[in-house]
């Protein structure tokens, strides 16, 4: 297997998505994604991460990120990326633990891109909760047979909400308009359910919804 190619076909398909799409663009698809994220939180409750008072869907989805509307420094991966690849989170939260959770999403995206360019696939799966929906999504993505993407991956419109201090929901838009090969859906809403693991965070679920740049949409300008 040469670098930049993956074996097999995964559930994510051939459209540059992190995982299965929602019900389509617009509020219905985003509501379904939110419900799925909440269902994941309830599953994790049974695994020892209780969802306490105030961990309802509305509270998780509506609270703005700590750095929203400020000049918080962008987040980029700590380790080098393949040539021609950039990952950045614009205007992330300015303070921990929210900033650290968003940084974990950036590092997850970076690890995935390194693996797609011939790097360590185990480093990707190590950033997911074992046996979680996120682990399945990432395994499917690694198994896909298509060229490794290059270009600029930009997270923006970032918001963080909490189920518990150790279980958070990160919503963000992922701009892949400068990525080649060009994905079918270059602008996506993404939802990451992140669980604290020691001093870091692991992904429990990864959800996406292609939304474009509609003025009244979540990723509009």
TrEMBL record:
Residues 1-32, 55-79 are annotated as: Disordered. This is Uncharacterized protein. Residues 1-17 have a biased composition (Low complexity). It comes from the Bacteria.
